[in-house]
Design brief:
236 residues; Rossmann fold; 2 domains; six-stranded parallel beta sheet; two-stranded antiparallel sheet; hydrolase activity; Putative hydrolase of the HAD superfamily
Length: 236
């Protein structure tokens, strides 16, 4: 039996940034009158596609997390400019800023998250929360959703000076919990950050797939377990 469980935060315990395309479309529609006659759907599609491409690079993902405002604005500006949408210089920044606020407004705790955490605690397991992102942003979510007192150790990327998939992110957390890798599991929605990297250290990697996407044929990793609902881990 495992002695400790490490959880990811965004899109594992809380719905935060998954399914970005519908969010971009909703935000751009709010600015429809300021788009200089351009079709909101076309503008939103270009921004969503450009953002997805930008975030496919790990270094860019880090910039998006830790230099959020400037990076979002730059990506949106470059997207509309590259697509030939003229007259959007001012509104592009407003769209980028509104997107962040929109995602925050629509975040919610997954219904079974607290029950799973509390059940593990009742069973005597040590619990760690390992999350990438800016300290202020991530701590606000942790407090907003009543998570802080439920974990024995919480580690935020900016505050720690390193984040997933850097091995130090997991090793430091395990040391704080006084648990060896083979006695711990990691649960999260990212196949590399929450499964492959922990597995390389000897941990169990559990992939949370709430939208039922499934593994692609060229997936870089095979999870020790795939779950569609958090409560499934209680059966292990």
């Amino acid at each position: 039996m495992k002695r400790a469980v490490l959880f990811d935060l965004d899109d594992t315990l809380i719905f935060a940034y998954a399914n970005p395309a519908p969010a971009w479309h909703a935000v751009v529609r709010e600015f429809a009158e300021g788009l200089a006659g351009h079709d909101p759907g076309a503008v939103a599609t270009v921004i969503a596609d450009s953002t997805a491409s930008f975030l496919s690079d790990d270094d860019n993902r880090r910039r998006w997390r830790l230099q959020a405002v400037a990076t979002r604005r730059s990506v949106v500006r470059n997207a509309v400019l590259s697509a030939g949408f003229t007259g959007l210089d001012t509104v592009a920044d407003a769209i980028a800023d509104r997107y962040a606020a929109y995602r925050e407004e629509n975040m919610y705790l997954y219904p079974d998250a607290l029950a799973v955490i509390d059940t593990f605690r009742a069973r005597g397991l040590k619990l760690g929360l390992v999350t990438n992102g800016a300290t202020e942003v991530q701590n606000a979510k942790i407090d907003r959703f009543g998570l802080r007192h439920r974990f024995d150790h919480i580690q935020v990327e900016e505050e720690a000076g390193f984040g997933k998939p850097d091995g130090r992110a997991y090793v430091h957390t395990l040391a704080a919990l006084a648990v060896d890798p083979q006695d711990a599991g990691m649960i999260g929605d990212d196949l590399v950050w929450d499964v492959l990297a922990p597995q390389r250290l000897g941990m169990t990697g559990i992939w949370y797939d709430p939208f039922g996407i499934g593994l692609s044929a060229d997936a870089p990793v095979v999870p020790d377990r795939r779950i569609l609902r958090l409560t499934e881990v209680l059966d292990a």
